[in-house]
Amino acid sequence: MTSHDEDSEETADGDAPVAGTSGADAEGVVRRGRFSGGPARAFLSSLAADERIFAADLAVDRAHVVMLAEQEIVDDDDAAAILRALAEVESAGHGALSGGEDVHEAIETAVINRVGPAGGRMHTARSRNDEVAACLRYRLREDLLTAVETVVGARETLLDVAAAETETIMPGYTHRQPAQPTTVAHWVCSYESALERDTARLLDACDRVNRSPLGAAAFAGTGFDVDRGRTADLLGFDGLVENATDAVSTRDFLVETTAGIAALATTLSGLSEDVVEFASDGYVDLADDYASTSSIMPQKKNPDTLELVRSRAGDATAGLSGLLTTLSGLPRAYNRDLQRVDRHTWAAIDGVTEAVPVAVGAVATAEWPAEALADAAGEGFATATGVADRLAAAGVPFRTAHEVVAYASGAAADGNPGVDDLDEACREVLGEPLTAVVDVTGVERVLDPAANVARQRVDAAAETREREVASYV
To answer: What pLDDT, on the 0 to 100 scale, is given for residue 65?
Structure first.
């Protein structure tokens, strides 16, 4: 048997969709029962916000009705009438719905108004609790796959940039200070690599999102002979959330998705911050489409789009915090607090998915001035690590080599020591000239940023990364 509270009921037969015969009240709205009025009704309503899951609810309703007919719980004529009514509701659109606490109630009301009391059979062996969970999962699956597709496209774009800028030397930074020379391609690939993990996280989340809660009813299942596997198959779910209480209680799939989206937003924020800094230093020239000017200072070219991308990380993290805060205080089974948690996920996934092509587009359309970047790559003795490595390769303990190079850096008037400065440092630290320690020609080579970078081979071949990206398509 099913529960006859407001969460799950089979509507009795009758002649018209009126109170006492169809499950509707005098205004034609189902499931109000003795709670029929007052200003709090508007406070309870999520009908406007539920527009996002309108199509998902119709799909869930159809699958449920088909299963009920196949299981001979609802006769074929009633099922056909309900399915026709659902098609009419779909054609009319969400905006035509009126009354009800949410989209689920509003659609059921619209069906009953079209086919009469038989429309109330649609809710047989079901609660809004498992219904809404199914709708959320159904829609979220679509949004997750869209996000993944967007990120994969961004990775392809970054690899194209890397291929074009393989030989473009640039300064690399730690603590916002020149550290070692690198290439634009190496920097770009560092973000493509991070986006690969973001892709994997979202796909992992999608795997757990794609489980059907239908058949759980309010939280304890139903006495009707439902086929949970059939509704899962009809809706494209890969499996079931087996435990009925867990099926209606959990929103961990929202948490996992929002966390993955927040991680993606953090990747985009880092990329944006780098490009903002590069632009400020004159190391990259953003395309006009990705910049704006000042209302008073006409010479300004502000990286506004990237600053907005950067802000999306805060939005997503705040959404995750709000979601976790609400969920952390809830007992098992359904609580009305759950009505508000999904909006955190929708806002995060929309905002961050929108930001992906903006962030990557800024990189792809930018000009990277090779000469200015190469000059900057040698500033601040950025080749110091290469020199220390050269000494270590010649047999000097690395920590001692580090001391030699540090001494030379401090002794050089401009902070960029040459061979003579290194020779002085060797005499001071090692007690012997540079020529006694290492081939000077090799040292001269590593003092050149381009030659220094050429010695470093840390990235996989571009075609290998391209194959990995293609595997997601």
So the answer is: 98
Q: In the CATH scheme, what is the code of domain 130-375? A: 1.20.200.10
Quick one: 86 exposed, middle or buried, by C-beta within 10 A (0-12, 13-18, 19+)? Answer: buried
Give mean pLDDT in consecutive 10-residue pieces for the chain, a chain of 473 residues: 39 35 52 56 72 95 98 98 97 87 89 96 96 97 98 97 93 85 93 97 97 97 97 98 97 98 98 95 92 77 92 96 94 88 96 97 95 86 87 94 92 82 92 91 85 63 55 53
Active site residue 294: yes
175 classed as catalytic: yes
Q: What are phi and psi of 261, to 5 degrees?
A: -65, -40
Report phi then psi at 285, rounded to 5.
Answer: -115, 110
Paired strand residues for 233: none
In 105-213, beta strands by DSSP E: 169-174, 177-183, 211-212
Residues 6+ apart with CB under 8 A from 454: none
Active site residue: 98, 292, 294, 321, which one? Answer: 294
Could you give the CA distance from residue 29 to residue 142 in angstroms, rounded to a whole number? Answer: 30
The residue length of the chain stands at 473
Please pick, among 91, 175, 295, 471, the residue that the annotation labels catalytic: 175
> For residue 305, what pLDDT is reported?
94
- The C-alpha atoms of residue 180 and residue 165 are separated, in whole angstroms, by 17
Phi, psi of 214 (to 5 degrees): -60, 140
Whole-prediction pTM value?
Answer: 0.85
Contact between 336 and 254 under an 8 Å Cβ cutoff? The reply is no
Q: How far apart are CA 223 and CA 215, in angstroms?
A: 10
The CA distances from residue 10 to 113, 126, 173, 427, in Å, are 16, 9, 67, 94
Architecture of domain 1-126: Orthogonal Bundle (1.10)
At 92, list the tokens.
């009319």
